């Protein structure tokens, strides 16, 4: 599933190609994804100019000049391709929504498993959108401080891994970047969220920011489905230290001269990867 760095990477190329251009065609090729496509989608958006492209959590928001916003969520396997029209390629499989822009770009939402979502609402009613209403702090915003992180973690005894996955607390983080951040912060993923010391919270906060920024610079992580809007993969997966590396030696331990295999465990039916030596499960 794309996480914040992957969505941000897609957003940046959408911005570069689409901002300031209008839609010359809107094709909806099936009735629904996870939700039905909004009624009147084509009529409402046709010939309207895209004035801004934004991201909130893992949602892409396209603002149009007549006061409507199109929300796109990529779900598990969704991909967005932007093709300059003159490439004239045959359509891909599973192109459920295709937008043509006045500068001859073709934007295709491809989603074989259809866990993605497309919604349309009036921009001024954004705060009432159910998808956006209860979202937590953006980790790359000024509001994401060690104090803010501590304030949300102290309210729950759930594991730190699951607390970081909770989009009502912090948005945009998923399995990959949480495993990587907790490893780098040397915090065991099963520790209770409210058990972190001030120093650990501070370390975790700055490592979350650092890892997201590094991943964005690398164009995100490509494991299965995610690719850039031109079809190219991201590169951050080569910098994963623990994610997907069960049984391989922990790089931090190896650097100190001993070989400790990375372990995998299941938390809320998702795999967590960690080093049992670097990330000690402390006393209560
Ligand atoms: Zn280790």
Automatic annotation (TrEMBL):
Residues 2-116 form the Formamidopyrimidine-DNA glycosylase catalytic domain. DNA binds at residues 94, 113. Its cofactor is Zn(2+). Monomer. This is Formamidopyrimidine-DNA glycosylase. SUPFAM superfamilies: Glucocorticoid receptor-like (DNA-binding domain), N-terminal domain of MutM-like DNA repair proteins, S13-like H2TH domain. InterPro entries: FPG_cat, FPG_Glyclase, FPG_N, H2TH_FPG, Ribosomal_uS13-like_H2TH, Znf_DNA_glyclase/AP_lyase, Znf_FPG/IleRS. Belongs to the FPG family. CDD domains: EcFpg-like_N. It comes from the Bacteria. The keyword DNA-binding applies.
């Amino acid at each position: 599933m794309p996480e914040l760095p992957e969505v941000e990477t897609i957003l940046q190329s959408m911005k570069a190609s689409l901002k300031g251009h209008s839609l010359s065609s809107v094709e909806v090729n099936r009735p629904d994804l996870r939700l039905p496509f909004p009624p009147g989608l084509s009529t409402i958006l046709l010939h309207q100019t895209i004035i801004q492209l934004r991201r909130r959590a893992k949602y892409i928001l396209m603002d149009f000049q007549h006061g409507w916003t199109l929300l796109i969520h990529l779900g598990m396997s969704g991909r967005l391709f932007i093709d300059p029209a003159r490439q004239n390629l045959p359509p891909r499989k599973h192109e459920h929504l295709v937008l043509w822009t006045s500068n001859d770009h073709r934007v295709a939402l491809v989603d074989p498993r259809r866990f993605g979502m497309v919604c349309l609402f009036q921009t001024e009613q954004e705060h009432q959108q159910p998808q956006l209403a209860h979202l937590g702090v953006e980790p790359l915003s000024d509001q994401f401080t060690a104090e803010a992180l501590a304030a949300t973690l102290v309210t729950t005894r759930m594991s730190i891994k699951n607390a970081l996955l909770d989009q009502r607390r912090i948005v945009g983080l998923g399995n990959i970047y949480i495993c990587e951040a907790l490893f780098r912060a040397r915090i065991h993923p099963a520790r209770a969220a409210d058990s972190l010391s001030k120093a650990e919270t501070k370390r975790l906060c700055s490592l979350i920011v650092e890892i997201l920024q590094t991943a964005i610079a690398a164009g995100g992580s490509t494991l299965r489905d995610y690719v850039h809007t031109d079809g190219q993969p991201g590169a951050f997966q080569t910098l994963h230290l623990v994610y997907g590396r069960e049984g391989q030696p922990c790089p931090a331990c190896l650097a100190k001269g001993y070989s400790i295999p990375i372990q995998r465990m299941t938390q809320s039916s998702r795999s967590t990867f960690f080093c049992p030596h670097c990330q000690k499960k402390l006393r209560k």
